[in-house]
Amino acid sequence: MIRFGILTLSDRSSRGERADASGPVLADLIRAESWSVAEQAILPDEESAISAALTEWADSGRFDIILTTGGTGFALRDVTPEATRAVIQRDAPGLAEVMRAESLKKTPHAMLSRAVAGIRGRTLIVNLPGSPKGALENLQTILPVLPHAVQLLKDDPASESSH
């Protein structure tokens, strides 16, 4: 069972001005895979608050994977990649690279993604776009490797036999 945390990053959603559409879509896909959504939260686009939440969640041991949605573009308030880089201990660039490559097949705007992925302790953190469609498509792109990634992070002896 893979345990996920989903952190939606949006000024408007955090103020209640707009419903969070991406977080629930991601949660539905995760549950359809028979995995667990341990927690969901919404925060404003504030780098220090995002970094603090990512650190707390990753260090808690309650999550195998933390997904962020939102704040990965070029807007001045888009600070999710910076907040993520501040807390990860190891980069996982292949995940962000493949998400951008697959998204580029659908829209040239994929070139504007600044999303990153990395590891803190035994937790994988992945930035996803803020749009429900983009978040879902990007998660679907990396979905096949997530079980193995979690096995490796948990130092599971079975990880050697699954690749």
Summarize the structure.
With 163 residues, this protein is α/β, with parallel strands linked by helices. It contains seven helices and six strands, in the order βααβαβαβαββαα.
Structural description of this entry:
The protein is an alpha/beta fold. It has a single domain, classed as Molybdenum Cofactor Biosythetic Enzyme, Chain A (3-Layer(aba) Sandwich), CATH 3.40.980. 42% of the residues lie in helices and 20% in strands. The protein is built from 7 helices and 6 strands, in the order E-H-H-E-H-E-H-E-H-E-E-H-H. It has helices spanning 11-14, 22-32, 47-60, 80-87, 93-104, 132-142, 146-153, and strands spanning 3-9, 36-43, 65-69, 90-91, 117-120, 123-128. It has a 6-stranded mixed sheet with strand order 2-1-3-6-5-4, with helices on both faces. A hairpin with a 2-residue loop joins strand 5 (117-120) and strand 6 (123-128). Helix 2 packs parallel to helix 6, helix 3 (47-60) packs across helix 4 (80-87) and helix 5 (93-104) crosses helix 6 (132-142). The longest helix is centred in the first third of the chain and has 14 residues, at 47-60. It is globular and about 45 Å long. The protein starts with a strand and ends in a 10-residue tail after the last helix. The mean pLDDT is 96.
